[in-house]
Amino acid sequence: MYEDYQTSVRQRISKQQAQQIALQRVPGRVIHVDLDLEHGVLVYEVFILTAQNKIFEVEIIARIGRVRKIEQEDDID
């Protein structure tokens, strides 16, 4: 299992690629990026501040670069 995790960690898009993908879906300025393991899936969480001062979180599956979820954040924390 550890080897499977190592393989999946090595075969992933970069942080910069994740930011580019997120910005294609939600224009603005990237203010934070996390790499997190959610339910066994490695995802980038890209937080974007829009021109309207709204914050969106874009989750991107790290292995394939597909957008998993986009949601507006209720508050800044």
List the helices and strands and how they pair.
Elements: H1 2-10, H2 15-25, E1 29-38, E2 41-49, E3 55-61, E4 66-72
Antiparallel strand pairs: 1-2, 2-3, 3-4
Please tell me about this protein's structure.
By secondary structure, the protein is α+β, with helices and mostly antiparallel strands. It has 2 helices and 4 strands, in the order ααββββ. The protein has helices at 2-10, 15-25; strands at 29-38, 41-49, 55-61, 66-72. It has a 4-stranded antiparallel β-sheet, with helices on one face. The termini are far apart. The model is unreliable at 1-8 (pLDDT under 50).
How large, in whole angstroms, is the Cα Rg? 13 Å
Q: Roughly how many Å apart are the termini?
A: 35 Å
What does the largest sheet look like? Answer: 4 strands, antiparallel
Q: Give the strand tally.
A: 4
Percent of sequence in beta strands:
35-45%
Q: What structural class do helix, strand and pairing data support? A: alpha+beta
State the share of residues found in helices, binned by percent: 25-40%
Mean pLDDT: 88
Q: Quaternary status of these chains? A: single chain
Order of helices and strands: HHEEEE
Note poorly predicted spans. Answer: 1-8
Strand line-up of the largest beta sheet: 1-2-3-4
The dominant shape is globular
Number of contiguous helices: 2
